[in-house]
């Protein structure tokens, strides 16, 4: 039986992620009475500071990033916090860290948000201090490597001290409410599941668009690029949730088994099924912005935009293309899944001058969480000059549909699941490695074929070749 941890150890506790997401999420959970009274939170990082200074640091982060209406009980939350500085590259400091953590009667949950190069040294330090013994589980924040080989090295290092059932690999998209709702839409409604296949679905689009440029991620992003930063994790997880077979239960093993099957069924991408781009100076939301090369301060072949045509080679999805695109400095910030259904096999209205359009399901993930199903309906009237049909949307705006519930940060769910030991919304090792195999093949294809990023103006939807990628199949990207 998995017990709720009574200790939480945060590595990288003074970093940007901790300020923006982790500390606000934990404080909000505490205010809602979702953290056990005996849970002690210990922060650690290289920064030299005392517990009092860390609590002041946390208070400033909460004032900046936690909405006013969710700031109840800040003082009580801060009293849970303590801090021990540790340089992860040496064993010094880990014994003191273990003393501060103290005896964990129910269990210890560790959240590791550090550079991947420090993972192995950190694991060695935890083993040295005895912080891997007993009921201990560890959450790993991405990136988990830059390719399959480096990912295997990281996973092997962690596996020396933790069995797979104690490793929680984090993809924060899986903590988003609408992503989880995708499973409810598919598997809790008999209306959709019978038509969720190649007989009725023409294609699927997945878009993750950002308006921002490099911001504070210059060094990381130029080493990573859009394919590894977004497609390898977030987008492939979304694809797997859309395409997976019904699991036997909503349990961690059953759900992740079905996702792995999808990832292993992905066909290698061909040269004419990939477009890569890099933004140049332009305007976003009416404001001029510099190009990638200007922000970086030098020329680079790193892609800031990727469009792909993917195929899942199995019975359900035979012949159904999955169009993926992601990029920086695009016209709007949006993450959405579009399921385009096929046309009706025969329209009884053609003789009356009316045309039909295929149904379309749009699942909005950010910035707005919503579900929209486009249906055909008759325009009111006497029809003396023919029947008129119009596509109308059936909208479910999640905040309106569930107005009495609290809208939570994705990390609230993930941190709580880590503390309580539920792996369902975390990524298993074989998932990670299947994702990297597919991504590595694309990068090798780019290298072999000499495929370089095409330029596109900031504020546009990427290179023209990305539009052509879909349009040569008679498909238009969902941009409205």
From TrEMBL:
- Residues binding NADP(+), per UniProt: 46, 142
Q: Describe the location of the Glucose-6-phosphate dehydrogenase C-terminal domain by residue ranges.
A: 183-478
> Could you name the domain of life of the organism this protein comes from?
Bacteria
Q: Indicate whether Glycoprotein appears among the record's keywords.
A: no
Q: Key word DNA repair present in the record?
A: no
Q: Which Pfam families match?
A: G6PD_C (PF02781), G6PD_N (PF00479)
Q: Which family does it belong to?
A: Belongs to the glucose-6-phosphate dehydrogenase family.
Q: Which UniProt keywords apply?
A: Carbohydrate metabolism, Glucose metabolism, NADP, Oxidoreductase
Can you tell me which residues bind substrate?
A: 172, 176, 210, 229, 328
Q: What EC number(s) does its UniProt record assign? A: 1.1.1.49
Which reaction is the catalytic activity of this chain? D-glucose 6-phosphate + NADP(+) = 6-phospho-D-glucono-1,5-lactone + NADPH + H(+)
Q: In which pathway does it act?
A: Carbohydrate degradation; pentose phosphate pathway; D-ribulose 5-phosphate from D-glucose 6-phosphate (oxidative stage): step 1/3
| Function summary | Catalyzes the oxidation of glucose 6-phosphate to 6-phosphogluconolactone.
What enzyme category does the UniProt record give? oxidoreductase
**Protein's name according to its UniProt entry:** Glucose-6-phosphate 1-dehydrogenase
- The Glucose-6-phosphate dehydrogenase NAD-binding domain covers 10-181
- The gene name on file is zwf
Q: Where is the active site?
A: 234 (proton acceptor)
